[in-house]
Amino acid sequence: MCTNIGNRKRNFGLLIVWLFATLVYAQQNVNYDESKVPAYVLPKILQCENGETVKSVEQWEKQRRPELIELFASHVYGRTPDAKIDVTYELLTEDPHAMDGKATSKQVKFTFSNGKKKIEALLLMYIPNKPTDKVPVFVGYNFKGNHSTTSDTTVLYSPVFQLMKETNHADWERGTQASRWSYDKIIDRGYAIATMCYHDIFPDKPELRDHSIVSLFPGYDPEAIAPDEWQAIGAWAWGSSRIVDFLETQEKIDCNKIAIMGHSRQGKATLWAGAQDKRFQIVISNDSGCGGAALFRRRFGETIATINKAFPHWFCENFRQYNNREESLPIDQHQLIALIAPRKVYVASAEKDLWADPRGEFLSAYYAGPAYRLYGLSTIESNEMPKLHEPIMEDIGYHIRAGVHDVTEYDWECYLDFADKHFKN
Ligand code: GCU
Fold first, then answer.
1. pLDDT(217) > 80
2. Cβ of 360 less than 6 Å from ligand 1
3. Alpha-carbon span 230 to 240, nearest angstrom
C-alpha cells in the first residue's frame, strides 16, 4: 500500500517534469510575431492536378474533391481503411427524467470487434423531452470521460481510464469539464447532444496504439506503421462517424441535422471527419490550431515540426517529411475546410490562444471561399479579422472571443445560433 502511494507520487513527479520539459521544448523558437510570418503562396483550391480550373460543382465533386481527399489522406492524416468493423450497441441506462425532467439521458456501450479482439466505448446522450418530434443533434468527443462533462452522478466512465491513469478509479474527474459542455443551454434550445471520450477510440498515447480501434483492422502490425497509415486523428474522425451510425438508429434524432463540434486536437479530427463524412451537416472547429484550421504555411505558433515531435501518434508518418518544409506540402488547411462545402462550417478562435494561431484559423476559413461560391453559398467577405465577439454567420462562420484556449458558454451560444440559422430557418 505505502509502496503504491510512493510509486504514484514518484510517477506524478516524473509526469510534471516531463510536461514542463515538453512545454519548454515546444516554446523554443516559436514565432508569435506577425511581421515574421514568411511570405507564402497557398495551393489553389480549384486547380486540378492536370492544371485545369474547376468550373462546375460536378467537376469539383468528381475530380478535384477526390484529389484533395487523397492528398490529405496520403500526406497528413493517413488513410481511413475501407474495411468495416463489427459493432454492437448495448443500452446501459435510460432515464426519461434527466436534467430535472427536461431531458432523457441514454448511455450506450459500443463494442467494436474483428472476431478476435474487442474494444469498448461509451456514448452519453441527452435528448430534450420537448419538442416531442425529431431534434437536431451535436456530436463531440470529450477529453476526460463522459462523467467529466457533468456532475450527474449516474454518468459512467469507461474502462479506458485504467490504461490512461495509474488508477482504475477516475471518479475525481467527475464534473471537472462541465464548463465546456453547456448541456442546459443545448437542451433548452431543442438540441440533443451525444458525447464519447476520445480515449475510447484511440487512447491518446503513442504506446497505446495496440488498445485503439486501429488495431482491429486488417493489416494492423503492432511493430510497424506504413507511411500513409492512419493514426490517432484518423481514428478519432472514424469514431465520430460511428457515433452517427448509431444516431441513425435513434427515432428521436433528425439525421439530416447533425452537427459535430471538436475542441483543439478534436477540432483537427472534426475537420477531417467533416471532410470525409457528408452526414455531418455542420462542422465546428473550436481552437483547432496546427493540423486543424490554422494555415501551416504561416508557421505562427505551433508548427509541423513541433506537433510531430510532441505527438508522434497523431498524423501519418509521411507528414514528418514536412517538418520545417511547410511550403513543400501539396495542400494547406483552407483546402480541408473547402472539402466540407456545401455543408456549413464554423471556425472559432480565442484571442490569447496564440499557439493555435487565431489569424491562421481565420484565414483558412476565409480562403476556403471559392469552393463555397461554386455552390452559390455565402462566404467570409473580407480578409480583415472581425473584432472580438462579432461572429460572422454566413455559410462559413467564424468568431474570435476574449480569453484562452478553451470551450466556453459564449462559444456554445455562437454554435447554437449558427445551428439555428441553418437548421431551423
Ligand atoms: C497541445 C497541442 C495542440 C492541441 C492541444 C489540445 O497544445 O500542441 O496541437 O490542439 O494540445 O488538443 O489541447
1. yes
2. no
3. 15
Ligand 1 binding pocket mutation candidate from 24, 231, 271, 355 (most atoms within 8 A of CB)? 355
| Ligand 1 atom at shortest distance from the alpha carbon of 263 | 12
Q: Where along the chain do its domains lie?
A: 2-424
With beta carbons less than 8 A apart as the criterion, state whether 299 and 31 touch.
Answer: yes
CA distance 104 to 119: 26
Instruction: Quote the cell numbers at residue 409.
Output: 458558454
**Domain spanning 2-424, CATH architecture:** 3-Layer(aba) Sandwich (3.40)
CA distance 236 to 214: 10
Ligand 1 contact via 302 beta carbon (within 6 Å): yes
For the stretch 112-166, pLDDT in tens is 999 999 999 999 999 999 999 999 999 999 999 999 999 999 999 887 877 876 5
Q: Between β-strands 344-350 and 253-263, what pairing exists: parallel, antiparallel or unpaired?
A: unpaired
Beta-bridged to residue 129, according to DSSP, are: none
Exactly one of 105, 182, 264, 288 is catalytic; name it.
264
Task: State mean pLDDT over 299-305.
Answer: 98
Q: How far is the CA of 150 from the centre of ligand 1 (A)?
A: 23
| Residue 277: partners with Cβ closer than 8 Å, 6 or more residues away | 237, 240, 241, 244
Cis, bond preceding 342 (omega within 30 deg of 0): yes
Which residues on neighbouring strands pair with residue 398, listed in sequence order?
347, 392
Q: Say whether 35 is catalytic.
A: no
Cis omega before residue 391 (within 30°)?
A: no
405 is catalytic: yes
